[in-house]
Design goal:
There is one protein chain. This protein has about 600 residues and is mainly alpha-helical. It is built from 20 helices and 17 strands. Strands 5-6-7 form a 3-stranded antiparallel beta sheet. The protein has a 3-stranded antiparallel beta sheet with strand order 8-11-12, with no helix packed on it. The chain has a 3-stranded antiparallel beta sheet with strand order 13-14-15, with no helix packed on it. The longest helix is centred in the N-terminal third of the chain and has 29 residues. About 50% of the residues are buried.
Length: about 600
């Protein structure tokens, strides 16, 4: 922990010396490159001359291009005339640090810094520990609640979404069992689904949650099995057919709840922005696999309506009115009800092999809006965070320095958008535009903040929601807070209200650590991930063999357990941790997108 703080304090000093050394001529790189490359395995078959040239390019900061980008951003009229934009920008030292990261990636190769025998052994041991955690959780669920949709580990029981259950838990964890090498457990889970689950039943379910967890889980497991397990595809098709009844509204915008039986008329009024725009990866892949074009037609129609609706520099409130076909609500945020709208803009473009530019264009516009209005930096610890805007329909919305843990997905998403999933070790630095570089800077800074949300608490685990110390740029006045009841660390910047101190074993931070590791190869992302895993093991793991549980208050030790373990702890959190310590050839980011429940789906193109 001491190393974590020291590294941040002395970082700028170290960077100055590194950059001074990096100004040596290309000829000097040519001389020493063969020896440097022995430290790691190059990502692609590039001769030393080419790699030396790339190393030289890594000294460049596109200052003029970035200045032009900033001028254009702040020259555009503000979406709110009386609102003062944050004017966040990547600093010179952050740009220089990024160059150092790029150089190290080129030197070390695609699989990163840790290629010695000892490093590989440590990585394997950690991967096996995480696999064992997956197995431990499955065995607890199988023993206490097999067949139930949700698991209550303290009472050794389960609950269902419908009277019969929909295989919610089992479908969601299925591909994690496969990826973690637990073939016996995978076979047990698969057998339960194909032998006992049917969607021809009465009852209603969450359209969003059932799509991302159950449909996404079935599709991912089908793909990982070699796209040969027709029983899994049949289940996915049956579920997709029944969920698709919800799309038969006048506007095409579905309600939040889906009936598993066909209704004569489906009506939607106001739905969550994230929920209606986070169905597309799953239904589009189902359309590709089954040849049933209606699946794609339904979710594309949603995006047609959503993309035409007015926005504020790409930013949108957290509800959508199906009647007016406009966004609604009094909050713009990247937390609950807003997050995966932005996530799926990028991932729809990636999923179909970058052949549908409208999604990337809308994503880029939104990222510009985020940087202009929502990014802020705390005064003491210099923590970069993403705030919220309240009352966006007024001329002067209010900035709130509140950030859900959910927002931590954005770090990985920014890095993914900057390189399209490629490692910095396998691309020329000049392929990164000034905007791409800024995204990588923001991704790394935001990840550090998300990690701090863990490490600054007594338990080493993050709260559900954090507030940050913040000074209003328009007035210079710091927003008031109660240091006695809210401040997590003396002289720190993270504030946690009593109602927000719980931990649901969420995945967003480790998701971003996994993506940043794959793209940058920096060892610290693995180190952070391991510290988080050990905190889960210490505080969330139940000692009686009954799995893990949510925690009620991470600011005290020991934290009290809650009688629930979310399915996403296995399907997302443990999966991302396992992949963090896996080889880059395991689900490569340049060939897969992860849906918002961490189910990997392959890139493809539509047949003409």
């Amino acid at each position: 922990m001491l190393q974590f703080y020291a590294a941040r304090i002395w970082r700028s000093t170290i960077i100055k010396y590194v950059i001074l050394l990096s100004t040596l001529s290309a000829a000097l790189y040519m001389l020493y490159t063969p020896a440097l490359l022995q430290r790691g395995t190059p990502a692609v078959d590039i001769d030393n001359r080419q790699r030396a040239f790339w190393l030289d390019q890594a000294n460049t900061i596109p200052t003029e291009e970035y200045s032009a980008l900033l001028r254009a951003r702040f020259k555009r009229p503000s979406a709110w005339p009386n609102y003062t934009p944050s004017k966040w920008r990547a600093t010179q030292s952050q740009q220089e640090e990024l160059n150092m990261v790029i150089r190290e990636a080129l030197i070390n190769g695609k699989d990163g810094c840790c290629n010695s025998d000892g490093d590989r052994q440590t990585t394997q041991e950690r991967r096996e520990r995480i696999s064992a955690a997956v197995k431990y959780t499955w065995e607890a669920y199988r023993g206490d609640a097999l067949g139930y949709d949700e698991f209550r580990p303290l009472s050794h029981s389960g609950t269902n979404m419908t009277r019969q259950g929909i295989g919610y838990f089992v479908a969601d964890v299925l591909d994690t069992l496969w990826l973690a090498g637990l073939q016996k457990e995978y076979a047990e889970a698969r057998r339960f689904l194909v032998d006992h689950v049917t969607y021809n039943q009465t009852g209603s379910v969450s359209l969003f949650e059932t799509t991302i967890r159950v449909l996404g889980g079935l599709l991912s497991a089908f793909h990982l099995s070699g796209e040969s397990d027709t029983q899994l595809l049949h289940l996915a098709d049956e579920l997709g057919t029944r969920l698709a009844y919800s799309f038969e509204t006048d506007s095409g915008i579905p309600p939040e709840t889906a009936s598993l039986q066909h209704q004569k008329h489906v009506y939607a009024y106001q739905s969550s922005t994230a929920e209606i725009s986070t169905l597309q990866l799953e239904f589009r892949y189902l359309a590709k696999l089954t040849g049933k074009r209606r699946y794609r037609k339904y979710v594309d129609k949603i995006m047609d309506v959503v993309l035409k609706a007015p926005k504020w520099d790409g930013l949108v409130p957290i509800y959508f009115n199906a009647v007016t076909r406009k966004f609604a609500g009094d909050t713009i945020r990247l937390g609950s009800r807003g997050d995966s709208y932005y996530e799926y803009l990028l991932k729809q473009w990636l999923q179909t092999s970058q052949t549908e530019p409208r999604f990337r264009e809308e994503y880029d516009t939104a990222m510009e809006g985020i940087k202009k209005y929502l990014v802020a930096v705390s005064p003491n610890q210099n923590q970069t965070f993403i705030g919220e805007l309240l009352s966006p329909n007024s001329a002067n919305p209010e900035f709130s320095p509140k950030m859900d843990h959910l927002v931590c997905f954005l770090s990985g998403n920014l890095a993914l958008g900057a390189t399209q999933g490629r490692s910095l070790a396998e691309m020329s630095p000049l392929e990164l535009s000034a905007s791409n570089r800024e995204d990588l800077v923001l991704a790394r800074e935001l990840a550090e903040t998300c990690v701090r949300m863990y490490f600054d608490t007594a338990s080493g685990l993050a709260p559900e929601i954090a507030y940050f110390r913040w000074t209003n740029p328009a007035t210079g006045v710091e927003k008031l807070f109660d240091a006695n009841t809210q401040l997590v660390k003396p002289n720190g910047d993270i504030l946690v209200h009593a109602s927000d101190r719980h931990n649901l074993l969420r995945p967003e931070t480790v998701e971003s650590l996994f993506i940043l590791w794959r793209i940058t190869g920096e060892a610290k992302w693995r180190d952070y991930g391991w510290q988080i895993f050990e905190a889960f093991e210490k505080w969330a793991r139940l000692s009686d063999g009954h799995g893990y549980s949510n925690l009620l208050d991470v600011t005290v030790v020991p934290p009290q357990h809650a009688d629930k373990m979310e399915t996403f702890f296995v399907s997302e959190t443990l999966k991302y941790l396992y992949l963090l310590f896996s080889d880059s050839s395991t689900v490569p980011l340049s060939r897969y997108v992860f849906n918002t429940e961490a189910h990997p789906l392959p890139h493809f193109t539509w047949n003409k």
